[in-house]
């Protein structure tokens, strides 16, 4: 972390100074929007309100809009997740694992009779994705160092088909599970703290 920190923390600190958020912050949220191909970095310190700090483009994408349902479907998961592990030796430069499948994924998999849900979903560098969030090497350098400073337990990751704060879901309903509206309502509720504007659809 020292090697990467020396290189990327000056830029990180400038993002936080501009957003008027203490560095390192108390909590971090990463909001990933598939359709818009971006990841938003939000943070807060002792204040109650979340502040948008920076946005990173997704540099790789696989699958289509809609949740991950099974192993090898190349889908990027959709839902509310946590970071659970760091991998400084990743073949994708650096990576951070999310807790897919989470309890919601497992519950719906059980109801549907799906057993092989897949795993090993990461936020990582490079520009290739096979069901993961690829953000490029510079972005993962920054996010990796930030996550080490903040701590895994203080970071949430929300992955949505599109920006549900302002638009209805744009996912095609073809061949989608019956519980999809429930998932999207949950994601939309989880996104509410991250905007000052009115929601457009709920």
Write out key terms for the chains shown.
single chain, 202 residues, alpha+beta, L,D-transpeptidase catalytic domain-like, 8-stranded mixed β-sheet, 27% helix, disordered C terminus
Provide a brief overview of the structure:
The protein has helices at residues 2-19, 103-112, 137-150, 180-191, and strands at residues 27-33, 38-44, 51-57, 79-87, 95-98, 122-124, 133-134, 155-160.
Describe this structure in words.
- With 202 residues, this protein is α+β, with helices and mostly antiparallel strands.
- The protein has one domain: Beta Barrel (L,D-transpeptidase catalytic domain-like).
- The chain contains four helices and eight strands, in the order H-E-E-E-E-E-H-E-E-H-E-H.
- It has an eight-stranded mixed β-sheet.
- The longest helix has 18 residues.
- The radius of gyration is 16 Å and the shape is globular.
Q: How many beta-strand segments?
A: 8
> Which value, in Å, is the CA radius of gyration?
16 Å
- Count structural domains: 1
Shape from CA axes?
globular
How is the largest sheet built, in terms of strand order? 3-2-1-8-4-5-6-7
The average pLDDT value, as a whole number, equals 94
CATH fold label: L,D-transpeptidase catalytic domain-like
In CATH, what is the homologous superfamily?
L,D-transpeptidase catalytic domain-like
Bin the helical content. 25-40%
Separation, N- and C-terminal Cα atoms: 42 Å
Proportion of strand residues: 15-25%
- The helix count comes to 4
Detail the topology: elements first, then pairings.
Elements: H1 2-19, E1 27-33, E2 38-44, E3 51-57, E4 79-87, E5 95-98, H2 103-112, E6 122-124, E7 133-134, H3 137-150, E8 155-160, H4 180-191
Parallel strand pairs: 1-8, 6-7
Antiparallel strand pairs: 1-2, 2-3, 4-5, 4-8, 5-6
Helix pairs in contact: 1-3
């Amino acid at each position: 972390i020292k090697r990467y920190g020396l290189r990327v923390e000056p830029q990180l600190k400038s993002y936080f100074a501009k957003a008027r958020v203490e560095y390192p912050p108390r909590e971090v949220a990463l909001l990933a929007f598939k359709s818009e191909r971006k990841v938003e970095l939000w943070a807060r310190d002792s204040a109650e309100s979340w502040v948008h700090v920076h946005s990173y483009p997704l540099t790789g994408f696989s699958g289509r809009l809609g949740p991950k349902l099974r192993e090898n479907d190349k889908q990027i998961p959709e839902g509310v997740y946590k970071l659970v592990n760091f991998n400084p030796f990743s073949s994708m430069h650096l990576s951070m694992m999310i807790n897919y499948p989470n309890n919601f994924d497992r519950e719906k998999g059980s109801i549907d009779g799906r057993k092989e849900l897949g795993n090993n979903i990461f936020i990582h560098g490079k520009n290739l994705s096979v069901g993961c969030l690829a953000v490029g090497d510079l972005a993962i350098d920054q996010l990796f160092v930030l996550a080490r400073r903040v701590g895994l337990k203080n970071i949430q990751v929300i992955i949505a088909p599109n920006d549900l704060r302002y638009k209805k879901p744009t996912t095609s309903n073809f061949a989608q599970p019956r519980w999809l509206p429930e998932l999207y309502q949950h994601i939309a509720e989880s996104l509410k703290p991250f905007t000052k504007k009115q929601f457009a659809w709920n």
